[in-house]
Amino acid sequence: MPSGTTPLRTQAAALALLAAVVFSNTLDNGFVWDDVCLIPQKPAPRSLRSISRLFRSPFFEGRWNDAADGRGSYWRPLTALSLAIDRALWGDTPFGFHLTNLLLHALNAALVLLLFHAIPRTRAAAFPAAVIFACHPLQTNAVSYISGRTDLLAGLFILLACLITALLAAGPAGPGPFAASLCIAACTALAAASKENSFAAPLLVLATAALAQPARPDDNRVRTAERGAPPRSRWGAPLAGAASSALAVCAVLWCRRRLGIAAPSVSDSSPGVLLAAAEGAALYCRLLFLPAGLHMERFIDIPSASDPAAILAAGAVVLGALIVSRALARGGASPLPLLACWAAAAFLPSSNIIPIYPGISDRQIFVGEQFLYVPMAGLACLIACAWVALRGAAARGGGRGGIAGRIAAATAAAALGLLGVLSHLHNEYWRDERSFYSRTLALSPGSARMNINLGALEAREGNYDEALRLLGPVAAQNPRFPAARLALGLAYTAMGRFDDAGRELNEAERLSPGSPDILDALGALAMASGNYAEAVSRFSSAARAAPLDPKFRIKLAAAHLHLRDPGGAETALRGVLAADPGSAEALMLLGLCREQQGRTKDAFEIYRAIARRHPAHAAARERAARLAADSCR
Question: What is the pTM of this model?
Fold first, then answer.
């Protein structure tokens, strides 16, 4: 491990190399789970011409506040913009998206180094803390999963805000208070536009300011007086920074309200919810020190107020809080209590006090490993500071103490190496959809949504017997779960069992009336059975239910064309092409409209334009060639 005399640039370069090695195998991974709808199936990031749309649309295309799990309340325009830039640079190639995630993580590790190096009390632990942050297996979900970029970007701007705060608290040598407050506000706003857990940024700014204060109250005035400058308040400028951060959060909440997004609401404060949150915190502590059996599908049932395990977990959390409170009251030079507060503040938005999935908050809470991405900075520094203190105590012992110090250093290096190896191996979990769903089910066999996702994947690949084996029991065991009925109905449609498909989809519609995905599936069933008028009706309803999602209008246009109604198809395509003029699907359908209208020359120009922009688009080339041949006869 580099010593305190190692140049900061060398340490930062070593961190970047470490992150590149540990996560290098993510570059071969594909699109998994939410990536599929956020990237290949999401129209918005296809063109940089429609950037403003990203700031007016839900992160997951559809209606605001319509999802039972609350996903319609996600407003993350900065993450969407980063995906748009990647799509412009790399197209549909996953490599570029994964490369961006890797670079963001390496940058965040460097910021952790700079942040704790800027704070005198944590300077000795800055490098080992950054190493833990860079290579801990709990970071894998945020780095290896493209959609985990929400945590990477939120972490980037939160760490920047905290770094500015630490420099501001350093005294006259730091940035000016006004400029620093503006920068902190900007970083907070950008973080909050990346993910909702950034609403805790003002608390983190305050915790950073407390960490950056001298251990003894008089030190700051002594140092300032020695330089001839007037004494400066230790808290004035950092408090202004925290206030500007809070104002930035309020501004983002105001923007969300203007867009019609439901405001985050505090969960029911029943004993069961609080006990489940305590169980989640205890689980995170276990995974921090024993990162085995990691997977994405962790839910904790809301326990009864007399559940022994939940009470034990709550007792451990309360005991930890009392120990930290007592240490804070006593003061002293140790940064450990304040680092615990920093990590707790970062974790607060993910503690399920504000429900992450409101649709199930009365039964379960979700414990996502990626929720520890930002808190990991504080936890890593806490562990590193404790290790530095123990090593220092051993070194001061002399003789055998020196040997013990070297053994401790070797043990720590081996532990960090093991963490890096575990992270590298765990990256394979995110290799592709089949690997992800299968491995998750091996660790959480009762997961309904993983069975549904794997069953839907089997149906798309034509493995219908396996799809029914997975989907049938889920639908039977969860009769009021519309997603299971929807997936089963789509599988039956693909198999040509239209009566069975209609029964399942109609039941899904009864359970979740107005759902655009279910209306879309009913439209697909009508198309497959040749009932194009019904398909037009269903796709029209889906497009009205989710006006921001162009895929329903594209399918509506296709249904109009089957009815030989090019005017209706062109009307449906108008809004799609206004949002994304380069959409190959929409342009192909527009070409077919022109053919049905007898405007073959216009159709030929459209197909030729598609072929020029998308050389691999065989259908456009074939239709252009056919029209060219017909015109020569």
Answer: 0.87
